[in-house]
User: What shape does this take?
Amino acid sequence: MFEMVREIAFLYALVVEFPLSLGRNLSELNNCWKRFLLFLVCTFAVFSIYVVGVDIYHLSNDVFIGYHEKDVTIIKREKEYKASDRVWVDDDSKVMRFYLAPGYVNVTVGETYSMRIFEKSQIAIPLNKIE
Assistant: This one.
């Protein structure tokens, strides 16, 4: 949640505040390289809007569709971020990749867990270990 709020705040500053400040100082932007820099910033802002939009779309799909509870076996695990990891799971001979929700990094490779899986946003929340 914190990462999403941070991304939205950064996107707002980049898309709204920065172009407004550049618009106030438009007379200083008469050099060609400054206009090129402005073009690059605007292009970056458009791609940032696209990336955040896709993430919000996948998250809203998962909210409306709901999660699936499955018993899966952890095949492989990689460190992705400080708060979450990326895991590959085996679900009835189908290998899928998910991100563990932040705070749920206490899983071991080779063990079977009951998980809540959000398929569109590729998030898995382990519930308990199956013996």
Observations:
- The first strand starts at residue 68 and ends at 79.
- The chain is about 45% helix and 30% strand.
